[in-house]
Amino acid sequence: MPVSFESLLAPLRHHAGQRVVVGVSGGADSVALLRALLLVGALPIAAHLDHALRGDSAQDAAWVEVLAAGLGVPFTGARVNVGAVARRRGWNVEDAARRIRYDFLGRAASTHGAPVILTAHTLRDQAETVLNALLRGEAVLHGIPAERGRVRRPWLNVPRGHIEAFLRELNQDWRDDPTNADPTYTRAWLRREVMPLLEARHPALQATLARVARHQAQDDAALSAQAAALTPHTPPGSQPPAVLRRWLRARLRAAGLDVHAGHLDTLTAALTSGHTTHLDLPGAHPVTVTGGRLHLTPQAYPEPDFTPPPHWKRRTRQPGDRVALPGGTRKLSDVLTDRRVPRADRDRVPLLVSDHGVQWVGLTPPVWAAGAREAAGAAPDPLHAAMGEALTLARDAAQALEVPVGAVILGPDGAVIGRGRNSSREHGDMTRHAELAALRDAARTLGSAYLSGCTLVVTLEPCPMCLGAALEARVAHVVYGAPNPRAGALGGVTDLLAAHWGHAPTVTGGVREGEAARLLRNVFGQVRAAKRGT
């Protein structure tokens, strides 16, 4: 065997002595793969699927069966009317053929106990696939993967000319599929009409497109890994669009939804801008992006878990609804916008309403009008109450001319075991943050540096230093009020929890966010005004 054929045999040698299923259509590529596997000592099973797309397709199946018998290779075959399946399921014929073929090969591998399936895709197939994806506007031009599940494609870098020369050396014939010359099929059109035209100007076109596929696959793997590291609390709008597209693609595919590149662009733009966008994906599946969040299904909204006063009525929203909050009366529509409730869901949110307006809004956590919780005799929300104490500490910090941040630690039983506020100016030490003071206080209370089962409640999203201290202390739950766009370590600037630290607390953001944000704005507004007056 000529030395030049080593490029065909080398990728197959590790299959020596191994049972493998080989997809054999009867074309040059698959026939060559079958012969090459025998030369390296593999134990192939020839598998042929008759797609029933041509009147003479049964002749191909018979030819492959005779070939296998002559080589002493086991044969398995099946016939499926691919055209009928495509029409029934709404697939195009090429896509239907691919799906049915791999299903058949998978069943053949299971029947024969073969750990891998080999297909004879070559450099030409890779180039055509990338070019086709480019023309369709696919988001990623990663081409045909060398491996996927049990399927292996060992000849993706092998030129077609090497394969034909190999078959001539063996004096082995093959069958040409007439549909490969039919330009009504996209791949045949690319092969017969487009690729020769491009290769006349760019002779290395196939290798170039294969390199594009390889680099795109590597880029996609790296960016998909970043997307997979996003945590539930990470604001998607803070991520690069390339990462967001892959995060969206993974979320949508996990939900069983089909998505095209244009859909990803539209949804990514909505996540980045914070605007609301509604889309119907293929199959009439509605998805919504609003307030920087993706909603794949209608949200479930809680009913009251208490007995309302008799004069409170349950209903959904009406024009003019308002709710009296501690910071002032607001339109219900503005509250729902702030809480990022999709517009399509807003008429489903349960309300409790009295003659004085909306008293309770069925969100998670619920929104209460000022004094309504007490009037209803409902149990206090421990996080709401703890944040109230943290806000008091933040106001104390503001009175001391410190950055207005306060923090408390709740023990496993929900009692406050640690308190702290910013005191950097007071001590001339920029590490004197509220969270660190509260962690130290809690450690003294418990007599242990480890705060397992405890909750950190702080008015501002923690910075990396403070979050790192909470991780070292094994805090179980981190709760914050306002986001920290300057130094936030939970998505404000970076998301430290995207890395693996050996401990990952749950995170709840936005508890009494409005009050915490107003306090910060007011204090810094006063500082700026004082500077202008000097």
Explain how this protein is built.
The protein is of the alpha/beta class. Helix content is 43%, strand content 16%. The chain has 18 helices and 20 strands. The strands form five sheets. Strands 3-2-1-4-6-5 form a six-stranded mixed sheet, sandwiched between helices. It has a five-stranded mixed sheet with strand order 17-16-18-19-20. It is elongated. The relative contact order is 0.06. The model has no long low-confidence stretch (mean pLDDT 91).
The largest sheet, given as strand count, sense and whether it forms a barrel, is:
6 strands, mixed
Derived structural class: alpha/beta
- What does the average pLDDT come to? 91
Ends distance: 91 Å
The helix count comes to 18
Strand order of the largest sheet: 3-2-1-4-6-5
Descriptive terms for the model:
alpha/beta; six-stranded mixed beta sheet
Short description:
The chain has 534 residues and is α/β, with parallel strands linked by helices. Helix content is 43%, strand content 16%.
Describe the protein's topology.
Blueprint: H1 6-9, E1 19-23, H2 28-39, E2 43-50, H3 57-71, E3 75-79, H4 82-89, H5 93-112, E4 116-118, H6 123-136, E5 147-148, E6 151-152, H7 160-170, H8 186-201, H9 205-228, H10 241-254, H11 261-273, E7 277-281, E8 285-290, E9 293-295, E10 313-315, E11 322-325, E12 328-331, H12 332-338, E13 351-354, E14 357-361, E15 367-368, H13 372-376, H14 382-399, E16 406-410, E17 416-421, H15 424-427, H16 434-446, E18 455-460, H17 464-472, E19 477-482, E20 506-508, H18 513-533
Helix pairs in contact: 2-7, 4-5, 6-8, 6-9, 9-10, 10-11, 14-18
